[in-house]
Amino acid sequence: MRRSFSASQQVEAEGEIDITPMLDVVFIMLIFFIVTASFVKESGIEVNRPDASTAQAKPRANILIAINENDEIWINKRRVDESQVRANIERLHAENPQGTVVIQADEEAKTRKLVAVMDAARQAGVYDVSLATEAM
């Protein structure tokens, strides 16, 4: 049995382009860029950090804590009570055990609040705690 196609049916069959492989490639590229992208973490507020001539960049600062001039503590764009700092640090450290804590304290923040946050980080098991400053 022989099948015969008319000329219009042959042109229509030849003119279709299968885009499934292209969609697969685009999807794989999307996954690649999402996985390899570096996301910038922010503490949630802008603070006036003190100047320091010996400031060094911290490459793996994953837990950012900010203390503003009113001694309010901010973690992940949320205001956190002083009693909840340790629990938040423990949770964030469990998500990324290699991460470090960087405290962004305002110049006008009280030293007592800064020491309380540093103490909470150490109680949470994170001993790599740094203070963010402006490089001179």
TrEMBL record:
GO cellular component terms listed in the entry, alphabetical order: plasma membrane
Gene Ontology process terms (BP): protein transport
Subcellular location: Cell membrane
GO molecular function: transmembrane transporter activity
Protein family (similarity comment): Belongs to the ExbD/TolR family.
Superkingdom to which the source organism belongs: Bacteria
Keywords assigned by UniProt, alphabetized: Cell membrane, Membrane, Protein transport, Transmembrane, Transmembrane helix, Transport
Stated name of the protein: Outer membrane transport energization protein ExbD
Bilayer topology: Single-pass membrane protein; Single-pass type II membrane protein
InterPro entries: ExbD
Gene3D superfamilies: 3.30.420.270
The keyword Protease is assigned to this record: no
Lineage: Bacteria, Pseudomonadati, Pseudomonadota, Gammaproteobacteria, Oceanospirillales
